[in-house]
């Protein structure tokens, strides 16, 4: 429908937009176009960000970021990450119970903080009985970031780091190159703190951003980084490959972190709308004047 | 040894030789010396208190852990898919009891020595109960260790390959550095012969006393596993399944009188049993009847259909001896020569 295609002026008067409309009409139409465009964009804007992005909030000081209920977290945007069974080859691998995890990420110049929170009514903190398994959560990162590793624990040629926290209170850093290969690595800067309140676990992992050690993820403040998550519900006998996992997401550490990418998109859209409206208005006026 | 090169014995893939044990159930007196020999060697402390890598249970009976035969594990009929298995509860094994030693030894109490509480189940709790009605009740003892199976579902169950069958002799071991305590092997073993250690957070099991068979035992000599060596009636043969000159090969493959426990689990155990042939039934009046005391059905349930031929062969050979004839089989079964019973160095110069 050429008539609606106002941005391509046609020299045939009958078919041009402006020729049949008064100046008022043009202004009204421009307004409608802007409003419709904004309305169409609104839901995306409310949902905030591109798929698979987890925003990273920069903070001057670490304050109480290492505390699961630290106030410094109040200003950090949250992402909700859906989880599903990892489909590993262990018995009952599909019987997992946690469906999503809330993720908030902050960083200072020195450290990266991840706050993970998920619903689990039972606190399974002991592995002292033969059928006792502990709740757990893990963060998976590429060991080096040249290429995205396979989601299931990486591969021999493209390994992953895993930060693992267990309800028993222990946490550890692991290196893996495929399912069943996790091996503990020495990572003295990794910390984890957890609370269980109102039927939810909240666990904060933190680690030094930089690493110059082989096979230990170096977190660059200037570059997005892949991340995947896993949660285990101990009382459902979840352990190893029987776990609820996410797809690969990424931490938005890259150049846009000063203002999240969706703001940039919003401004581009708004800018285009303004240019469009102006062009339509000018053309309308020109035509109305019979130029 | 030359014989292994053209061996007709089926071994697991990648295994040079396979340790094996034959236990003659007709000789077991249920003394638990084997159990204690094993325990003092390997499972006295450190989270192993509840474990009996060697246990002796009364059959018919619930066994150790309680009702282990109903807990699944092993392989399905195709032999390729594992059958899901359960984790036993601590109560099924029996908790280590606390006794009133303190009161009796130090506080002058004159109450009898007894467990303080929860003494309502334990290994061989149903000792000698058995089944059947007087005067034809019956029971026998069944000593059990890990069978170091040829097709071990415990090994297949581990997502980390932490439990493995070692190449030189097929002994199944848990690599304590690789194990992360997931307990899939505990679920997966139909004989419930892998145990979870809640202190070390790893799984542990019978190691066939490998340091002893490697000559690292007492006096630096090659010795059979402690459960075998310490058994008062010396009812176990220990050696290699593929030692075709040895008694195990004869009992298992030639005479076929040594049979597997629950062959339908399809893990292909390398511990074999000479089935029990109890005295015949008697009448109320005490006369001997021409009827077997332990129902064949029951023995078949435990040892599969091959138990029938095994029992028939044994009674045939016993009759030969009664008639004054020679029987190689009965000689093997009644030997008192340890050198015949324990053949662990046959492949040493291979
Ligand atoms: S008896 Fe159980 S633990 Fe031992 S090898 Fe067989 S399956 Fe594994
Ligand atoms: S030591 Fe020998 S006789 Fe005693 S219970 Fe063990 S296997 Fe039976």
From TrEMBL, chain A:
Q: Which cellular component appears as one GO term in the record?
A: periplasmic space
Parts of the chain that traverse the membrane = 264-285
Q: Which keywords accompany this UniProt record?
A: Electron transport, Heme, Iron, Membrane, Metal-binding, Transmembrane, Transmembrane helix, Transport
InterPro entries in the cross-refs: Cyt-c552/DMSO_Rdtase_haem-bd, DMSO_Rdtase_II_haem_b-bd_su
| Domain (Cytochrome c-552/DMSO reductase-like haem-binding) ranges | 70-244
Q: Which domain of life is it from?
A: Archaea
Chain residue ranges for the region called Disordered: 1-20
Q: Which GO terms describe its molecular function?
A: heme binding; metal ion binding
* NCBIfam families reported for this sequence: DMSO_red_II_gam
Q: What is this protein called?
A: DMSO reductase
Where does this protein come from, organism-wise?
A: Halobaculum saliterrae
TrEMBL record, chain B:
* Spans annotated as Disordered: 63-90
Q: Where is the composition biased (Basic and acidic residues)?
A: 80-90
**A Gene Ontology cellular-component term:** periplasmic space
User: What keywords sit in the KW lines?
Assistant: 4Fe-4S, Electron transport, Iron, Iron-sulfur, Metal-binding, Repeat, Transport
Molecular function (GO) terms for this protein are: 4 iron, 4 sulfur cluster binding; electron transfer activity; metal ion binding
Coarsely, its chief localization is other
For biological process, the GO terms are:
anaerobic respiration
4Fe-4S ferredoxin-type domain segment(s) = 19-48, 137-168, 170-199
Task: List, alphabetically, the SUPFAM superfamilies matched.
Answer: 4Fe-4S ferredoxins
Cofactor(s) recorded for this entry are: [3Fe-4S] cluster; [4Fe-4S] cluster
Per its UniProt entry, which superkingdom is the organism in?
Archaea
Q: What CDD domains does the annotation carry?
A: EBDH_beta
Q: Could you tell me which InterPro entries the record lists for this protein? A: 4Fe4S_Fe-S-bd, DMSO_Rdtase_II_Fe-S_su
Alphabetical list of Gene3D superfamilies matching this protein: 3.30.70.20
Its annotated compartments are: Cell envelope
> Which NCBIfam families does the entry link to?
DMSO_red_II_bet
Name of the featured protein? Respiratory nitrate reductase subunit beta
Origin organism is Halobaculum saliterrae
């Amino acid at each position: 429908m050429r008539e609606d295609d106002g941005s391509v002026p046609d020299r045939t008067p009958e078919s041009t937009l402006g020729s049949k409309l008064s100046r008022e009409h043009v202004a009204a139409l421009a307004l409608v176009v802007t409003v419709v465009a904004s309305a169409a964009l609104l839901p995306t804007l409310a949902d905030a960000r591109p798929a698979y992005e987890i925003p990273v909030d920069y903070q001057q000081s670490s304050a109480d970021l290492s505390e699961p209920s630290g106030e410094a977290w109040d200003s950090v945007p949250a992402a909700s990450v859906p989880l599903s069974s990892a489909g590993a080859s262990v018995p009952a691998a599909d019987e997992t119970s946690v469906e999503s995890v809330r993720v908030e990420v902050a960083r200072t110049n020195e450290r990266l903080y991840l706050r993970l929170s998920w619903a689990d009514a039972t606190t399974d903190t002991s592995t002292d009985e033969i059928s006792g398994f502990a709740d757990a959560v893990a963060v998976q990162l590429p060991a080096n970031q040249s290429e995205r590793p396979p989601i299931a624990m990486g591969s021999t040629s493209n390994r992953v780091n895993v930060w693992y926290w267990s309800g028993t209170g222990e946490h550890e850093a692991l290196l893996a190159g495929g399912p069943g290969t996790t091996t503990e690595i020495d990572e003295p800067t990794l910390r984890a703190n957890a609370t269980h309140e109102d039927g939810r676990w909240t666990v904060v992992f933190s680690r030094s951003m930089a690493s110059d050690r082989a096979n230990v993820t170096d977190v660059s403040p200037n570059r997005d980084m892949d991340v995947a998550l896993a949660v285990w519900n101990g009382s459902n006998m979840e352990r190893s490959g029987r776990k609820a996992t996410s797809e690969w997401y990424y931490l938005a550490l890259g150049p846009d972190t000063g203002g999240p990418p969706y703001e940039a998109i919003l401004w581009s859209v708004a800018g285009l709308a303004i240019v469009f409206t102006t062009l339509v208005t000018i053309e309308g006026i020109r035509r109305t004047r019979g130029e | 040894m030359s014989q292994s090169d053209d061996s007709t014995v089926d071994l697991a893939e990648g295994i040079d030789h396979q340790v094996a044990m034959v236990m003659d159930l007709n000789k077991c007196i249920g003394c638990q010396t084997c159990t204690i020999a094993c325990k003092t060697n390997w499972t006295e402390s450190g989270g192993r208190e509840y474990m009996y890598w060697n246990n002796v249970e009364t059959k018919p009976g619930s066994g150790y852990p309680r009702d282990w035969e109903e807990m699944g594990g092993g392989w399905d009929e195709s032999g390729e898919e594992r059958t899901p298995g359960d984790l036993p509860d601590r109560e099924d094994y029996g908790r280590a009891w606390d006794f009133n030693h303190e009161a009796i030894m130090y506080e002058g109490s004159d109450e009898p020595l007894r467990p303080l509480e929860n003494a309502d189940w334990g290994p061989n709790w149903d000792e000698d109960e058995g089944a059947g009605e007087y005067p034809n009740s019956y029971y026998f003892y069944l000593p059990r260790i890990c069978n170091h199976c040829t097709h071990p579902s415990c090994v297949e169950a581990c997502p980390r390959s932490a439990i493995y069958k070692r190449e030189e002799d097929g002994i199944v071991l848990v690599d304590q550095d690789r194990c992360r305590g997931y307990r899939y092997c505990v679920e997966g073993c139909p004989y419930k012969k892998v145990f979870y250690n809640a202190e070390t957070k790893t799984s542990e099991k019978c190691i066939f006393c490998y340091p002893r068979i490697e000559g690292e035992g007492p006096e630096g000599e090659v010795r059979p596993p402690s459960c075998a060596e310490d058994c008062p009636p010396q009812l176990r043969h220990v050696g290699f399944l593929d030692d075709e000159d040895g008694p195990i090969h004869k009992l298992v493959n030639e005479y076929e009188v040594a049979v597997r426990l629950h062959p339908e689990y399809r893990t292909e155990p390398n511990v074999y049993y000479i089935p029990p042939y109890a005295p015949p039934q008697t009448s109320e009046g005490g006369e001997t009847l021409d009827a077997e005391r332990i129902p064949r059905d029951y023995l078949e349930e435990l040892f599969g259909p091959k138990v029938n031929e095994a029992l028939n062969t044994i009674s045939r050979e016993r009759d030969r001896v009664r008639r004054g004839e020679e029987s190689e089989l009965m000689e093997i079964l009644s030997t008192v020569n340890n050198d015949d019973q324990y053949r662990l160095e046959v492949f040493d110069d291979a």
